[in-house]
Amino acid sequence: MRLQERLSDHFALRDPHKAMLVGIRELAPEIMARAAEIEAARRIPPDLVERLRSIGVFRMFVPRSHGGLELDFPDGLEVIKALTRLDGSVGWVSIVGAVGSLFAAASHPDLYQRIYQDGPDVAICGSSQPGGTAERVADGYRVKGRWPFASSCTHAQWIGGFCIVTENGKPVPGPQGKPQIRVVVLPAHDWEIEDTWYAAGLEGTGSHHIVLRERLVPDVHLFDLEAPPRMAGPLYQALRQWLPLFHGAFSVGLAEGAVDDLLALAHTGRQQLYAAVPMRESETFQFCLGRICADLRAAQAFHEVQVASHWRRAQAGTLNDEDLMIEGARSAVWLATTCVGIADASFALAGSSAVYDSSPLQRRLRDLHVGAQHAHAQQRQYVDVGKLALRRSAEPAA
Predict the structure, then answer these.
(1) Are residues 260 and 136 in the same domain?
(2) Is 390 exposed, middle or buried (0-12, 13-18, 19+ CB in 10 A)?
(3) What backbone phi and psi angles, to 5 degrees, belong to 22?
(4) Which of 15, 63, 171, 210 could be 179's S-S partner, Cβ–Cβ 3.0 to 4.6 Å?
């Protein structure tokens, strides 16, 4: 029996969400033991990618019609948080895999069939920066470009990149006069990877630059993310509204891991230089730990509420709302800021032992700071949040 068929039978016989969490718990010791290897390689080792594939990471948001699990969105985020709690880079590539399958759901049916012709466990990645151009020609588009931050490109099977559509060398106007954007998706072997990922954090994500030399691409390989959804079901109504919530799951999962690491250090009986008692017996340590735990619980609760609200709207068929995009951004930015603070405080409280590469706390801190630099978690998003608050406050009471 083929691997894909065995995996399908495995998930059919068990609750797929619970089965994935069990698989993650079984894999946890190996992921944590290989953290230094992941960072040194600047990618997830191929055998570990296959373990993630066997757990179902790449199929969790693929529709059941194509052999996927089609998990409810909150369940999928719980899986991502569990992986991120173990290792930031592993969590990040799991997000890329989940987002990739949702992006693919917006593609032309013929392309979608080709992507999943051999089963649902397909690793898809790409770059959402419009680093390419797609020139309209008689037989399709001439596409070329160079895109940054293509996380997971070292193990992806399909890769996509956002392109500005041009005609006669000039951008084609889209909505509100902005340039029209299309996503080009091609097999990974059609792309070049530039070894550029030397970063302050999330080192194991393989987020290199990708390059596409000028080539003729048929229409079927490009699609518009703003077009009406091609698939039924709450997961596939609108992609943009989900993206900030993925970042929230990443921030919360990493903050949970930082607190786990701090508690583990305290339970070793460590006593810092010049301290009168071990860390865990110090009221100063206990006070600071209490503040950290309160911040973490607030972050967990905020994310849970935002995810539940979005999922209710998705089930009601009203997810595709610009205000929801802003609400999601509000939560992503606040969570990133709060969780960076949790990691910073945990690192400081751990003392000098946390400065070594062998300490997971310094890695959590670096990963959270790099994750907070992402566009969906940037403080500038608060401008739109403020505008929304002003508009709503000026509206007549219902």
Answers:
(1) no
(2) exposed
(3) -65, -45
(4) 171
pLDDT along the chain (398 residues), means of 10: 47 79 97 96 97 97 96 98 98 97 95 96 96 94 97 98 94 87 97 98 98 95 89 92 97 98 94 83 95 98 98 95 94 98 97 93 97 92 92 83
CB atoms within 10 A of CB 195: 10
Q: Which domain holds residue 39?
A: 3-115
Q: Per residue in 219-236, is it b (16+ CB within 10 Å) or e — as a string?
A: eebbbeeeeeeebeebbb
Tell me the whole-structure pTM to 2 decimals: 0.94
CATH of the domain at 88: 1.10.540.10
Q: Is residue 229 part of a domain?
A: no
174: domain CATH number? Answer: 2.40.110.10
Burial class (CB in 10 A: 0-12, 13-18, 19+), 15: exposed
In a domain, 249, yes or no: yes
Residue 164 is encoded by which pair of tokens? 């500005």
